[in-house]
Specification:
Length: about 450
Amino acid sequence: MLGLQKKVWLSSLVKCIHAIRTSNSSSQLIPSYFKIPHVRLRHRHSSSLLKTRNLSSGNGEVSHAVTGSAGDESLFGKCPALTNVCRYSTSSDDNLSLSNVKVQKYLSYLKNSYEEATKSLDQDNVKTVNSLKDLMDALEEMEHVKSEIKELQELAKDVSAGNEMQQLADSDLKDAQVKLLSLEEKVLISMVPADPLDDTDISIEVSAGVGGQEAMLFCREIFEMYQNYADFMGWEMETTGYEVTDIGGLRHGSADICGKSVYRHLKYEGGIHRVQRVPKTEKAGRIHTSTVSVAVMPQPTEIDVQIATKDLKIETKRASGAGGQHVNTTDSAVRILHIPTGIAVESQKERSQHKNKEECMQKLRRLLYQKQLDESYSQYSSSRKLQVGTKARSEKIRTYNYPQDRVTDHRIGVSVHNLPSLLGGSDLLHSLVCKVISEADRENIFEVIEEFNARQTAES
C-alpha cells in the first residue's frame, strides 16, 4: 500500500488538475506540500507497531508487557524490554514524563553535555558521545514525528480534502501518536546509562529451603524452568552442580549461563520462590508451603576481583559419595576459606585436586564480586524495592500457587495464570521477566533524575 505522503501527493495532483480545468486561478489552489513534495517526504520513518500481552494483576487490573512484532527472530524481538520496556505516562502530572520540569532539566543537561563533547573528541568525550548517541537520535526522530502529527492533524480537519482523505489522515495520525509514545519511552530509557554488567555471563544457584522433600521437588522444577528459559532465549547453559534426592528432588543445583544480555534478564530472579500446593506425599490433602532460594551472580574475571594468597586458608580432604575406588583413597576434595570475609567454598566434583581448587577459586571470586556489588547497590539505592542478587535471598519475591493456577510477583504486584506454562520457561515467563525489568528501569530513571535535581539544588 502507498504511504500517506504519496496518497496525499497524488490526491493533491488530481485536485490540482481538476482546478486547472475549472478555474483560471489554479495556482492559488495548489497546496504547499504539493509545490515542494520533498519537504514532506524527506522525514519518512518506518515504524513497527508494538504488540502487548495482558498480565492480570492481583487487584483485577490488567498490566501490559510489551512484546515484539511477530516474525522478529532477533534478541530485541524476543525481549523488547531492551528497547521499549514499559508504558510511561506523558502527562505533566506524572513524575516520569518528558513534560515534567525535573525531567526537562536533566534532559537539557544531557543535551549540553553531548554538544560540548562533540566539540573536542578526545577519549572521554568520545565515550560521552557514544553513550548519548541513542538519546540524541531518539530526540531527533521524535521531533520529526511531532511535525508529522501536526500536519496530519491539519489534514484531518481539512474539509476540502474529502472524507476519504480525512479518514486516511485520521488513521495515520493514530499510528504516528503510537510511534510518538514509543519514542518518548525510548528517550526516558536512554537518559539513564545502561548497567555495564547487563551483558555479563552469570552463575545461577537454586537451593531447596523450608519444606523438606517437597521443597526439593520444587527446587528441581525451578532449576528446569531456568534451563528451559535459557533454551528459549538461545543462551548456553552448563550445569556445574546437581545434588539429587532419592525421590527425584534437587537439594542444590548450579549452572553457568552465557549469552546476550543474560544478567539483564535474570538479575531480578534472585530471592525466595515460594510454592503452595498439596505434596505428593500428603495423604490428607492439605496444602503445604515450601520455599526455594535462587541466587544470580555475574561472572567476574580475575581483573574484577583480586584475591591475595595470604588471605586464603586451603584445606584438602578425601571425597565422599559415589565414585568407586576413587572415593576415600585420595585427598581430592578442596575447601577454601577467605579469612577477611569468612566466606568458605568447597568442591569435590572433579577427581583432580587441582581442578577442584580451580572450581573453588571461581566460586570464591563470584561470591566476593557479588558482595562488592551488594555493598555498591546498597549505598547507591537503599530505597529501591527491586534489589539485585544474593541480597534479595531473604525476600519472598514470587509465589507459585497451584490450587489457584496462579503465579504472583510480590515486588510489582502482578499475577499471571497458567502456572505449568510459566514453569515451562517460555513466553509467559519472559513476559513476567520483562515486566519486572520495566519496573526496575522506571525506578532507576526516577532515582537518577531525583539525584541530579537534588545536586543541582545544593549547588545553586
